Amino acid sequence: MTNIGKSVIRKEALDKVTGRAKYTADFPSGEMLHGKSVISHYGHGTIKSIDVMEAKKEPGVRAIITGKQYPLTGEEIRDRPPIAFEKIRFHGEVVALVVADTPAIAKRAASLINVVVDPLPVVNSPSEGVSKDAPLVHDNVAEYEREEGVHPVPKTNIANHTKIRKGDMASGWAKSEIVIEENFSFPPSDHIPMETRSATAEIRPDGKVLITTSSQAPFMVKELLSQYFDLEVGKIIVKTPLVGGGYGGKASVQQEILAYLGSLAVEGRTVRMINEREEDMITSPCHMGLDAKVKLGCTADGYLQATELTYLVDSGAYSDKAIHLSRACAVDCTGPYFIENIWCDSYAVYTNHPYPAPYRGFSHAEVHFVFERAMDILARKLNMDPLELRYKNAIKPGHTTPTQVKLNRSTVGDVPMCIEKVKQLSRWEEGQLIELNERTVRAKGLACVWKNSTIPPESSSGAIITFNEDGTMNLMSGVVEIGTATKTVLAQILAERFRMSVNDIYVKMTVDTQSTPEHWKTVASRGTLMGGRAVLAAAEDAIRQIKEVASCVMKVRTDDLEIGNRRVFLREDPKEGLDFRDVVYGYTFPEGNAIGGQIIGRGNYILRNITYLDPETGAGNPGPEWAVGAQVVEVEFDRRDYTYKIIKAISVLDVGRVLNYKGALGQVTGAMSMGLGFGGRESFVIDDKARVLNPQLRTYRPVHFGEHPEYIVEFIETPHIDSPFGARGVGEQGLLGMPAALGNSLSLAAGVELHHLPLLPESIWRKKEGLNT
Amino acid sequence: MSIFQYVVLKINGEDRPVMIRSADTLLEVLRNELGLTGSKPGCLNGDCGACTVIVDGKPMKSCLMLGVEGTGKEITTIEGLQGTAIQQAFVEYFAFQCGYCTPGYIMNCQSLIENEPKATDEKISEWLKSNICRCTGYEEIETAIKSVLRESNSKDRPISRESEMD
Ligand code: FES
Ligand code: FES
């Protein structure tokens, strides 16, 4: 292997360090109008009036639109007017849209629009949402158009209910000698990609709709716009250049709709929307909050017997991806353990909060915080080392998952090996809690993780390779380059198959839905599996064609031929062969006649054997494989003032196969950093009227330079047979156990069980002192 | 009177005449008037550093400075930086992923290298914490800046860099 595992520098590296890399908002504006949203400042209310008179008078204002006439949108339930109509349901919701000549004019005009709202009582948490006398965010969710497999509860705030019914609960509880019951929660927060979302839309006279957007799902933008507005799907062309970070947030389709409506209002002229940071945090979809209850039981010697789980996903005002997020909570509702008896109810609950997009890990970091904190509490009650408890119960081939999938060595990584390795790296044996002096202690917390994806069974990915005259190749894939270097990894896979240098492969960085083969969405850490398999299929296709031409020229059978180093040659006598340059654009015989033509390889891949979940039991195969890991966070905690410093963060992840070492490392440490932010400090501060008080980076503070711990990362390689070279997902796994491991270390350090995120010194102090949280 | 004024800004060593509003930030002028889109908007509030440029030798968040304030000053943007050690180090040490924070980060690093060639760890933290990178865990950025500082401090004994493929 010459390419696989190597730290190949990403293909777009030079562009990115010289300021030449282009993102959506970097393309020249030219003849372009600018859209600006007017957003709601209330959490819930009835719109009495919208006065646009003053705004209309501003010179340069081309259109002002309000929500009335537009169809409802939403991925799985159509519950969201693209612009609020009659009612507003969250702080940040778009109430009107101004289109003007310049951003400054649009902004000024937007500020002149006067929206009068009659406030309504708010639903301020999912627990409140399911309480008996909760106000209804939507009058009757059951009346909305919805996809199959979505189970709303009529006339409640419950947009979806997913059930897991595995085993026999009565016998599980009967065998449980030790039982704990705990509640956990955290408010919504945000992805904070450094590039805020932006989108432009233009409608041509022939009906063509041209969209450029900073999206993880350009193909979804095309599909949904076509459905929502009844447009011919082939007339919608969506382009996505490089994306400045997504982490799931840009997999939702929201701003594109506004840009389209803006353009529609001005006879199809180009309209650009760029989110300000505040809008990016609250108007566009955020990261879900969660309220959860867990009951967990085991035998006296620490074997898990039964668990009962309730997850209330804060679906915000609109269900969009929350349906799917709540389903994912159910699919992997426990940590990576074998438990015979599982009962889980996972609900997507409407509240008056900003609504969630996917977030790196897709519900798994959230579920792991709940379950892995519960594991530590159980271990304490058992008086057992939490590492030993996890080791004893680690899920293995032959076991069944919550959705009753029987695992094999390919479909699940090696949990025990990850635990053993992290034990060593964290020096677990020296003790979990070490007193440094009378104020300061050092504490280690552990969490085990697993993740499968829950993307739709029919999701597919395609790849095209074309040749240049000199025998080098161009690679086109629908995977969006959001920072994960997947396009570079795909080039490595292609190079490996062709046994040639990765430098001879040119990668098309941008996606254009008209000319790039589809990749469903760049999410779920599945770019490498699906995109990679498509690339391998395209490679086979091209190789077959090359061999056909060569066999004709060389008068040999195709199966006697081999390829490598941009040549096709006889297996038995490699000196006998042809350079690619003589084959890939057709071969010309000495007499002048020619055969073949430009070689174009095409391939696709569709996940195999994925099934829908049974609505009553949840049984079904959710995705291709479970990547697993074990993680430790070590903190230094000041017992007097409750401040703490994260000293070390350790991840041992079974990634199947490392394809690009430094690339994978960066994915993992970056995800760890994000997870520590989510666990330790990031959340929306929401007041009693459901207004978000901190939608800016000064008051919502991600991890900054110098606040990062020492990272230790080790990879285990248990191959996933279906995947190129055995690779498992790696983009999200680093994040998954961080909030839980941080919670476990701080609970130990502070000597009090912590149940809520974010873990701020103040909230630890409150818990310790028994004050209101 | 027109709200636009004619100013000449010295950017990357060139005199650049522009008509701008007095309310335009330097970031807006660079991006919208001059097409220098390497400087990125991230918050327009001084909180993220994605828009960092070098003004008279010091790092400056271009969203916090008006375009008209730039007259008579030497302004360097990422487009004016070519083949520097820090750019090379960012590539070699994988100090970016999505690349959106990268121009701002590099400008801040470059300015640190020029102003504080003997920076201690504390000094480095103090400078670099004004930028946010959401993709990396900062470790790679730390390695990159330290490698350049170390190298410039020991010219005769350059540290060996890993090659493209190791
Ligand atoms: S855009 Fe200037 S600091 Fe964020
Ligand atoms: S590389 Fe994406 S924000 Fe820094």
From TrEMBL, chain A:
Residues 18-121 form the Aldehyde oxidase/xanthine dehydrogenase a/b hammerhead domain. Keywords: Molybdenum. SMART domains: Ald_Xan_dh_C. InterPro entries: Ald_Oxase/Xan_DH_a/b, Ald_Oxase/xanthine_DH-like, AldOxase/xan_DH_MoCoBD1, AldOxase/xan_DH_MoCoBD2. The keyword Magnesium does not apply. It comes from the Bacteria. Pfam families: Ald_Xan_dh_C (PF01315), MoCoBD_1 (PF02738), MoCoBD_2 (PF20256). PANTHER family: ALDEHYDE OXIDASE 1-RELATED, XANTHINE DEHYDROGENASE. This is Xanthine dehydrogenase family protein molybdopterin-binding subunit. It comes from Evansella tamaricis.
